Amino acid sequence: MDLLCQKLLSQWLLVILWCSIIATIFQHVSVVSLPNNETVPAVIVFGDSIVDTGNNDYITTLVKCNFQPYGRDFGGGNQPTGRFSNGLVPSDIIAAKFGVKKFLPPYLDPNLQLQDLLTGVSFASGGAGFDPLTAELVNVMSLSDQLDMFREYTRKINEAVGRNRTAMIVSKSIYIVCVGSDDIANTYSQLPFRSAEYDIPSYTDLMASEASNFLQKLYGLGARRIGVFGLPVIGCVPSQRTLGGSLNRACLDSSNQAAMLFNSKLSTQMVVLGKKFSDSRLVYLDSYNGLLNMLQNPAKYGFEVTDRGCCGTGNIEVSLLCNRYSIDTCSNSSNYIFWDSYHPTQKAYNVLSSLVLDNKIKDFF
Ligand SMILES: *[C@@H]1O[C@H](CO)[C@@H](O)[C@H](O)[C@H]1NC(C)=O
Ligand SMILES: *[C@@H]1O[C@H](CO)[C@@H](O)[C@H](O)[C@H]1NC(C)=O
């Protein structure tokens, strides 16, 4: 082979190598294009198990999932990281959508490097709620604990990269808030503490007022581009169907009504705050109708099983109850919307994130 041929061949190999690296990075996630050359330095997440990427691994609580079969399809397979799914969770998927990175690490990971901090972390803690009692009952990090960690985070990056760059990161980053399901599904529906004192209208008032306080504090700390997930159709997750008590495991209507009522209060509060803070972008993300659409039209999105999770019987197993000894765990969850009795599969999270977020991206800028 002459020299020219060799040179062409090696250039081709380089191109193929790069293509496959890029294809691997964005294998599962659609990257959306951002308007007017906008850049997003970091994605920063607050919330509960839907967006916890492993913080609960580092605290003393029973709300954990850093064991198999969690993470069964993560990375190279069988990597339980503390994400409550078989693979990626919305924090990762959203970070990739905004072109920031493929995995959003948990803030409490002791191995984080400066570069990890500069591109964003998750402060979320599985089991948290808007209602401060929700986190307290299961000994996890409340939203106010999560804001304290965010304050510490900004101090750290300030020390490392200085005030100007910190100000840029804080004001230009995308903030995602996803919490509240546990208030309805656990604290209110399963335990006596709140239901003795509140009815659904007054409890959702309490939640909405906590949500508004949280968003005002977050704005006060410099956040400007904030997306807030409404509650999903929480009465239709497998554990709520089981605990709801009807023989045919129908969706628990009272939880769905509560979720819709809360969502309308939340989105109203967000409009009010958006007017008060005119330099902010507050984006309401409707996961209720997104998940409902998937549950009602599973075949459209490539799903078959909608009313039970893959793990164990799928009716009740979640967190510690979903483990390597769970009997009847499905061998391939690709037809399942739910991974355990409460949390969607990676595939369902991918579909849901696209349904909920893709046409809202422009509203962040
Ligand atoms: C920070 O920004 C201000 C105003 O833009 C500028 O005057 C100053 O030189 C910057 N400081 C550093 C350390 O870059
Ligand atoms: C699960 O099934 C899907 C569809 O049949 C297939 O594409 C995928 O490779 C399977 N995954 C595993 C881990 O076997």
Q: Secondary structure elements and their pairing?
A:
Elements (H helix, E strand, L loop, with lengths): L2 H23 L17 E5 L42 H8 L16 H5 L13 H6 L5 H30 L1 E5 L2 H10 L1 H4 L4 H21 L4 E5 L8 H6 L9 H24 L4 E5 L1 H10 L49 H12 L8
Parallel strand pairs: 1-2, 2-3, 3-4
Helix pairs in contact: 8-10, 11-12
The structure holds 2-acetamido-2-deoxy-beta-D-glucopyranose (NAG) (2 copies).
How would you summarize this macromolecular structure in one to three sentences?
This protein is mainly α and 365 residues long.
Description:
This is GDSL esterase/lipase EXL3. One of its GO terms (biological process) is lipid metabolic process. Keywords: Membrane, Transmembrane, Transmembrane helix. InterPro entries: GDSL (IPR001087), GDSL_lipolytic_enzyme (IPR050592), Lipase_GDSL_AS (IPR008265), SGNH_hydro_sf (IPR036514), SGNH_plant_lipase-like (IPR035669). GO terms for molecular function: lipase activity. The chain has 365 residues and is mainly alpha-helical. The chain has one domain: Rossmann fold (3-Layer(aba) Sandwich), CATH 3.40.50. Helices cover 44% and strands 5% of the residues. It contains 12 helices and 4 strands. A 4-stranded parallel beta sheet has the order 1-2-3-4, with helices on both faces. Helix 8 runs parallel beside helix 10 and helix 11 packs across helix 12. The radius of gyration is 21 Å and the shape is globular. The N terminus is likely disordered.
